[in-house]
Amino acid sequence: MCIRDRLSRAQRLHNQHRHFIRGLVRFITYMAAFFLTAIAYWIAVNFGEPSLEQMLYHAQFGLGGLIDTDAAIINSFLAWCIALPFITALLLVLIEYSIALFLTHGSTHWLTRPARMANIHIVKVFYWFIGHRAPLYALVISGIYFSMQFSLTVFIKHHFGDDYFSAHYVPPTKVKVVPVKPQNLVLIYVESLEDSYKSPALFGKNLLSSLDGLSGNSFASYKTAPGSWWTIAGITATQCGVPLKSVSLYGGNDQGEKIKTFLPNAICLGDILHEAGYRNVYFGGDALAFAGKGMFFQDHHYDEVYGREELKGNLKDTEMNYWGLYDDDLFRLVKAKLIQLHAQQQPFNITLTTIDTHGPGGHYSKYCKARGVKDFEGIVECTSNQVTEFVNFMSKHGYLKDTKVIILGDHLAMENPVSSKLWTIKERHIYNRFISSTDISKNRENIVPFDLFPTILEFIGFKVEGGKLGLGYSAISKDVVLPPADEYENMNENLLNKSDQYLDLWSIKHTDKHLK
């Protein structure tokens, strides 16, 4: 009798262990399925529809960059992508266990109450035909949803398509770039600023009217391009003439290894201006560690690089938002640096990036609150007015006589409170404004971010032989061969394909950055 009891007890323990393992496997499978669905939905809500390339690019910088982002975004991620999938998976496993107990043992245990309250026939059908494989079905469906959200098939195609980059890239080492009548440069990247905000039909008025009122020129069709869809990618595209994409799956960096140097073999705007004797300075309200932004400027001859940590000593913590400095404080500090640099009689380039119009909700600075701003549309208009005020400050002090200003959206707007209005526009364009004491002569109206690399240089008084650098065609050169009519479509189709020449730009094994 004692032996039988021991065997029975051992069998019960074995069954309990087996049921626990099965339950754990089902929980993990459910958790994985709901996590894929939740993260795809969460990213779409907060950042629009970024590509898988963009996600992998950010992953290369590890958790350090994520920690430096908006705390509200991190809390939202933990709630939607960790807590919600965990709770949902746990509840489903408990419900399934309740149904199993009820059907197999007719148990009166409290866990069987949900099953006893349901129709017995429906419960049986669910359990025997669906329940056994429910976690697998959920994982497959969520995998399909995730793949559709991030165009996984397109990402796979990029591994096997034609090498567009090598066929079109013109290394700056092979182009003669000469300063003819070089002037100072102030380059302003306004977060997510696009022409759509000028539509009275959508917003009741032109939210960017103050910017449009500045004397200067704009290109009517400044389109986005592959690998330039987020801030550091837009900066890299306009200053180096190349896209940003993940390199860890192709080579150059082991998967998971943090990038240690940013495009070391690419020659960019900062490199060329440095060789011409310019002092390059960068100001940004957010953390330099996020997405490798600080590394980019430091590795491409920016003499002074300021981000949230470097600038917050000028402020109280209560005067910063989750990302960092509000734009009004940023412009105040940039004005002080502008006065200092202009007095030194050395050519200079000040590059700055704003953040108040960053999604998903924007940030309300003291400047804007004092002017009654209470919604996101008001933030956009207020930011526009602050940039205008900064340019007017330059004009008042006579700086525009020897300094040129370029105002650019860093990319199209991502998810924000007015996204539903923006998405009604069939073809959206990035905002751009070139401010100079003399008008520029445009050779076309259609440009992409890569075109800004040679265009900026020629705008401030450099001569770019042939008018082409990197992937960009100068939009103001008289000598440049204009891009083919199908260039934009070809670029969208093939630019992100695997390219050994692109990977060479990231290689730390050799570095030859001497200009011709």
Question: What does this molecule look like?
Answer:
The strands form 4 sheets. This protein has a 6-stranded mixed beta sheet with strand order 5-4-6-2-7-8, sandwiched between helices. Strands 1-10 form a two-stranded antiparallel ribbon. The protein is built from 22 helices and 12 strands. The longest helix is centred in the first third of the chain and has 46 residues, at 2-47. The chain is globular, with a radius of gyration of 28 Å. Mean pLDDT is 84; it is low at 249-257. α1 (2-47) packs antiparallel against α4 (71-105) and α16 runs parallel beside α18. By secondary structure, it is of the alpha/beta class. The protein has helices spanning 2-47, 52-59, 62-67, 71-105, 113-117, 120-130, 134-149, 152-157, 164-168, 200-203, 209-212, 231-240, 269-275, 293-299, 308-311, 327-343, 366-369, 376-396, 419-422, 452-459, 487-494, 500-506, and strands spanning 177-179, 184-190, 221-222, 279-284, 304-306, 348-353, 403-409, 432-435, 446-447, 462-464, 468-469, 472-473.
Short description:
By secondary structure, the chain is an alpha/beta fold. It has helices at residues 2-47, 52-59, 62-67, 71-105, 113-117, 120-130, 134-149, 152-157, 164-168, 200-203, 209-212, 231-240, 269-275, 293-299, 308-311, 327-343, 366-369, 376-396, 419-422, 452-459, 487-494, 500-506; strands at residues 177-179, 184-190, 221-222, 279-284, 304-306, 348-353, 403-409, 432-435, 446-447, 462-464, 468-469, 472-473.
